[in-house]
Design goal:
Rossmann fold, about 140 residues, alpha/beta, 5 helices
Length: about 140
């Protein structure tokens, strides 16, 4: 069974209640359930943290898995530690954002982690996670 790490960063534990007009009404539990239903043969390691060092450790743990999907939250814009951890983890990696960060405030338009991942999905809401996992699984099986 393929193993995919889905890592969620700072403030994403508040999904469903935090600015639902921007981030939607689904919670991380809802997103996890959606992924498990869509990809029943995948073993997911689904986590959320508000602590940058913990996230960096989890990225390292993803080495040897089929791949990694990461929604860094605000760390997207300034965490060089997360960038370096992603760069050093040799698995397919996708950065996910629920909102279209390119249509928002100027400071949200720059990602310091994007250069360390294979693909970026933004603006698709929770469905972006489906696209990201599909990409990772496809890369893992050579599609």
């Amino acid at each position: 069974m393929a193993s995919v790490h889905v890592l969620n960063g700072v403030n994403l534990g508040a999904l469903g209640t935090r600015r639902p007009e921007v981030y939607g009404t689904l919670t991380l539990d809802d997103i996890q359930r959606m992924l498990r239903e869509e990809f029943p043969g995948v073993d997911f390691e689904f986590r959320q943290t508000d602590y940058e060092g913990e996230m960096v450790g989890w990225v390292r743990e993803a080495a040897g898995s089929a791949g990694l999907v990461v929604n860094p939250g605000a760390w997207t814009h300034y965490s060089y530690a997360l960038h370096d951890a992603l760069e050093a983890t040799n698995v397919p990696k996708v950065e996910v954002h629920l909102s279209n960060v390119h249509a928002r405030e100027d400071w949200r338009r720059r990602s310091v982690v994007s250069p360390a991942v294979d693909a970026v999905v933004a603006g698709m809401g929770a469905r972006g996670y489906l696209a990201a996992v599909g990409y990772v699984i496809g890369r893992a099986v050579g599609a």
